[in-house]
Specification:
Bound molecules: iron/sulfur cluster
Strand content: 5-15%
CATH class of one domain: Alpha Beta
Shape: globular
Number of helices: 23
Strand order of the largest sheet: 4-3-8-5-6-7
CATH topology of one domain: Aldehyde Ferredoxin Oxidoreductase,  A, domain 1
Helix content: 25-40%
Radius of gyration: 22 Å
CATH superfamily of one domain: Aldehyde ferredoxin oxidoreductase, N-terminal domain
Structural class: alpha+beta
Distance between the termini: 20 Å
CATH architecture of one domain: 4-Layer Sandwich
Length: 626
Amino acid sequence: MIHIDMLCEAQRVLGGFAFPENIRGYKIEMSKVLRINMSDLGHKWETLPKKYETLAGRAFTSAVLHNEVDPTCHPLREKNKFVISPGLLAGTMAPSSGRLSVGGKSPLTGGIKEANAGGLTATRLGYLDLRGVIIEGAPPVETKDWYSIYIGKDKCEVKKTNDYAGIGLYELIGKIWKDYPGKPGIIGCGIVGQRLHKGAGVFGNNVENTDPGRYAGRGGLGAVLGSKRIVAIISDASGGSRPEAKDKDRFEKGRKAFKDALDNHALTGRLNNEKGEPYGALKNYGTNVLQNILNEAGALPARGFRTGRFEDAAKISGEAVHDLIDKTRKKFGDKAEGKYGHACHPGCVIACSNVVPYEKTGKAQVSPLEYETAWALGTNLGIGVLHDVAEMNRICNDLGLDTIEAGNAIAMFMESGLIDFGDGPAAIELLKKGYHPESAKGALVCSGALTAGETLGVSRIPVVKGQALPAYDPRPIRGIGVTYATTTMGADHTAGYTIAAEIVGIKGKVTDPRSIDKAELSRTFQATTAYIDSTGYCLFIAFCVLDDDSGFNGMLDTVNGFLGKDIDIGEYGMAILKNERAFNKGAGFTAKDDRLPEFFYTEPLPPHNVVFDVSDEEIDAVFKDM
Ligand code: SF4
């Protein structure tokens, strides 16, 4: 366990938070940083500053934003920056370590934002020894041109590519792979980001380049890219090489132990057991295995957070997707395109991703359908038809729209009575309006739940700091509510996933979800998560490392072996949170922003009929010294 008292005495260095003494001063190979200025379309290569030598992923994006961006700036003007950083281990042989962080001041929350995703870009940048790409400035507002950025070995080109703009993302990624046959990583923004709507996510291509579904979805960062007139960033690792650990033996020992632990854990493990039966829950059913679990717990927010159970949860669950894939495989044989156990980036051994097929043809409909999306576009809207939910997922992926924000925005239309809860075809039609710039309804669906709800006269708007809540109701599960309230990111389950302790359990022990003393639990999870988000590891490794000491130690050995020096998880994570809290304070956030919407305190949630009754004092205790 990591406690707040583990923090070393903090000191400020060059406007940033100093990372622990035992890792400062340690010499590691100096990676590069690429700085691109969209005001003059120029770029320069920089040596990674010494103060950033152990920072990667979220630690890097948040440090750069804290040190270089005025927190009061307009998020969609030239003073904001869009920062990209592969996790520390991206490109290495460490399992499930190819996550990419993107950061900027969020147009949705007005605060600091980091979002991360799989795809190909992190490993490509790792091979190029690039710790970060910082995109600053913006072309003059009158400009009508769109750009893409090509990053290769010691090469960067900012190109005018107007033909990449204004089209769906399925078409765009096909076009780019034709223009760049070397299988590059791609990230960028779709139509929604190009129109500067706050629901815009940053897409990435999947490994097969069949779907733009790898989303750093939250916080409207796609609109930050759009404001800089960038549609796509293409990373080509040709001529690059696999990053090497400083202490190779320790890294390799840790890698093997960690992979072994992941393979054998019931959640993160291999596809089948010795009898050929399904074994690893994530590999078989994806994250959407949580649909039935949360429903059973009475904490699955259905129909705009009115009840904690959904009668059709099973029909859109991970188990239902698994059955559909098996059925279409049987029917269409080699032509079936549905998959479970699909990896979102090279080297992910958990492989929780999937490809959902059309039942009638076996062809791919969308990849992936995750729990959050199945909830936001299904359960949350009272829609229990798998095809309709997957279709909405596909439209969001094509538009470049965050599915959680989109689902909550559509729920606002349902709350206002413009369409009915449960009406899948009407929800699909509403979402399709997002393609049409002249449609006011389309613009609202793409602008997030807060804008949609306020415009439509809704008083129950499930947002914190302007960002819509995800798929766990905070009334029966108080720790996740404390995380929603206090995270620097706006409502975000991934920022401190207490569900692992409160629902799944750690080492066979479940922390009572109903207890109201959750400040320390949330703080610990938030600090640990900030560390994981910096390593390149996927958050889902947590299920294994929290449960299995050999997995935990193996994971630590990979990180410390890579750096050649020990770092402390708690100190490292808290240093990141400190930078983020300071940014948000500068942007004008106060304790009153660390609160859930009023209706969670006043409307009891069936079936447990409880409200969120954690005190303000307990919430404020999470970061009382920050
Ligand atoms: S566990 Fe799932 S989300 Fe995480 S890296 Fe692997 S495929 Fe991607």
